[in-house]
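I hope you will forgive my troubling you with a question about protein structure. The record follows directly beneath this note:
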Amino acid sequence: MGVVTFLPEGSDFPWKCGSLEASEHFAGIRSLFDRAAELIEQEDFDTLETVLQEIMRPGIELKALENGKVEQLDGIIIAGNRVRWR
């Protein structure tokens, strides 16, 4: 999807926060994340759960650029260039 820069000041356990520098591959799935952000705004958490399951279905992981360590994610929300994950 791109490169995420961790922003500890925006994190709220168990959620971590960062900014996304999206790659060209992100364009194909951006609409799912836009829909999830809309549902959060509308407080439609039942529908949100379905959208988040669709986002997570293929499996999403973060890979640290400095050491290659891989972190499997249980959830991710992207709104604009702001990323929250756990």
Residues 58 and 82 are 21 Å apart (CA to CA). Helices lie at 30-42, 45-56. The chain has two helices and six strands. The mean pLDDT is 92.
